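Database export, one record per block. Field names are fixed; values are copied verbatim from the stored entry.
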Amino acid sequence: MPVKSYLSRVYIYKQDIIADLKSELSGNFEDLIVGLMMPKDKYLAKHLHKAIKGVGTSEDVLVEILCVQSYDEIMNIAAAYKSSNIYIKCSLLYPNISM
C-alpha cells in the first residue's frame, strides 16, 4: 500500500499510526520508525531519561544531545519531559525533589 494512501486512511479512520507500526514491525527497525514518528522534543527527553536512570549515567548520550541544542531547544525538551509520564512517575516516587 502506498504511504500516501495509508496516511489518508489513517486520517479518515482516526487510527493510531504508531500502534499500527508497532504491531507490524519489530526489533531495531521498530525502534527507528517509532522514533522517527515521535516529535523531536519527546524523543530527546525519552533518551535523556534513559541515559540518567539507573545506577550508571551515560555521559556520552547527555553530551551528544545537550551540547548541540540551543537554549530554546533545551527548554522545549525540558517542557516535553515535564509533560511526559516519566516526569509524573519520578515526581510521585520522589515528592521532595524539585525537577
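Remark 1: Residues 40-93 form a domain with the Annexin V; domain 1 fold (CATH 1.10.220.10).
Remark 2: The radius of gyration is 17 Å.
End of record.
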